Amino acid sequence: MTYLQQSLPAERRQTIEQNALGHSITESSLIDQCQQCGDWESRYRVIMQLAKQLPPMPSELCCESNQIHGCESQVWLTIYSQDQRYYFIATSNARIVKGLLAALIAAWQGQNGDFIQQFDANHYFHQLGLSKHLSPSRSNGLAAIVATAKQHCLKS
């Protein structure tokens, strides 16, 4: 698998820099927003809206070598390393999974490897109020995404 790319091409950098994920939409702002929601349906709407914030993934990156296995839905992930920071581009064919990917990217975008390695995704999704509403297969897929990112952020 070739999830990890060693340099961030200029056109991808521009897409990432212009996107709200990891900039104005961060781990803490998303936790705050979800904790203000009164019920599961409101949190679900936040995640579905967050899915719309994912920048489009170029079709050439939606290939077998970037596909995450262990997910019920199709998920593609590319990780770029630049100046000891990591940048993520991802997509899925399932809108809820796109929202969950966006939540992870909001927390991880531009962070260093230590942050990503220490990141507790279970705790994060608990703080977002989503953990108990994810099906076992969705939780397993999310775990596969997190494990893949952590594994590849170790290699740089």
TrEMBL record:
Protein name: Sulfur acceptor protein CsdE
Residue stretches making up the Fe-S metabolism associated domain: 32-151
Superkingdom as given in the UniProt entry: Bacteria
Family recorded in the similarity comment: Belongs to the SufE family.
InterPro entries documented for this protein: Fe-S_metab-assoc_dom
SUPFAM superfamilies linked: SufE/NifU
Pfam families: SufE
